[in-house]
């Protein structure tokens, strides 16, 4: 451990603030627009605004919240709702597992990572994977914390503020708000890919996502992710080994 | 269900918070054991990317809300047009791609009167 000195508290603040500044980035703005759409959806469903704010902070991931609201509206048993939400959230595990080795240092306490993992959802993940390479390793945890915590708190406030105002959008607006999310994710993953296997996983994941949504809609995301990701990794590795031999 | 009293908050905490954070915690524990330069991390990244791709595919092919009534060719056309603008967009490719896709969709929705 001779190479690593204790992090300078001043530079930690600096990276935290730089992470905070990320809320003025394209991904953060698109996510906020998606949350305006979510506020409209819950207002239409007549879920009290305090509960919408509470779930924004507690669940954070947007797809999981949409499923949770659906369960609440259909009067599902708490266990049924738990299973539906938890199945939709399995993807959090590989996402967090892929991010952790990129941001931690050998001295980062596990409790801090456990706490910060709460702020991982697709947007924060894509943002962090894309930008963390430009941040020195010692500042990465602070950088992610600044971005993730600020983005979550801001969206809790945003949902509370716009809830009353946006009870009903014209259909074109709500349709375009909805479509921003997939289009933004596509461009971001493409831009942030630093390795050939990511393009392969993106293509195979899209195709299998469509396929499993038709043949096994209950487990589609999970199946497409594990099978598609494994195929992409295996195929890319086979090609890499062949290239290395020739 | 009723939205009064404490019950909705318990419901959200158990079926929402616990149901999602359990996986995030598992991800931290797994990620802590992965070496940054290992083949395992390559595989984990591929699976994570494919999972997000599957979410994208579902949003495009099986949208909810207003877009449920829109034709599939319009949604696919928006993505393809956005993709074209993305690849010729140079430095502004992300904004160009997103704006083109959304513009195409909005125009299509307006013409079709969805």
TrEMBL record, chain A:
<keyword id="KW-1133">Transmembrane helix</keyword>
<keyword id="KW-0472">Membrane</keyword>
<keyword id="KW-0812">Transmembrane</keyword>
<dbReference type="InterPro" id="IPR011606">
    <property type="entry name" value="Brnchd-chn_aa_trnsp_permease"/>
</dbReference>
<feature type="transmembrane region" description="Helical">
    <location>
        <begin position="23"/>
        <end position="45"/>
    </location>
</feature>
<feature type="transmembrane region" description="Helical">
    <location>
        <begin position="197"/>
        <end position="215"/>
    </location>
</feature>
<feature type="transmembrane region" description="Helical">
    <location>
        <begin position="110"/>
        <end position="129"/>
    </location>
</feature>
<feature type="transmembrane region" description="Helical">
    <location>
        <begin position="141"/>
        <end position="166"/>
    </location>
</feature>
<dbReference type="Pfam" id="PF03591">
    <property type="entry name" value="AzlC"/>
</dbReference>
<feature type="transmembrane region" description="Helical">
    <location>
        <begin position="66"/>
        <end position="90"/>
    </location>
</feature>
<protein>
    <submittedName>
        <fullName>AzlC family ABC transporter permease</fullName>
    </submittedName>
</protein>
<feature type="transmembrane region" description="Helical">
    <location>
        <begin position="221"/>
        <end position="239"/>
    </location>
</feature>
<feature type="transmembrane region" description="Helical">
    <location>
        <begin position="172"/>
        <end position="190"/>
    </location>
</feature>
UniProtKB/TrEMBL annotation, chain B:
<dbReference type="Pfam" id="PF05437">
    <property type="entry name" value="AzlD"/>
</dbReference>
<protein>
    <submittedName>
        <fullName>AzlD domain-containing protein</fullName>
    </submittedName>
</protein>
<keyword id="KW-0472">Membrane</keyword>
<feature type="transmembrane region" description="Helical">
    <location>
        <begin position="95"/>
        <end position="113"/>
    </location>
</feature>
<dbReference type="InterPro" id="IPR008407">
    <property type="entry name" value="Brnchd-chn_aa_trnsp_AzlD"/>
</dbReference>
<keyword id="KW-0812">Transmembrane</keyword>
<feature type="transmembrane region" description="Helical">
    <location>
        <begin position="40"/>
        <end position="60"/>
    </location>
</feature>
<keyword id="KW-1133">Transmembrane helix</keyword>
<feature type="transmembrane region" description="Helical">
    <location>
        <begin position="6"/>
        <end position="28"/>
    </location>
</feature>
<feature type="transmembrane region" description="Helical">
    <location>
        <begin position="72"/>
        <end position="88"/>
    </location>
</feature>
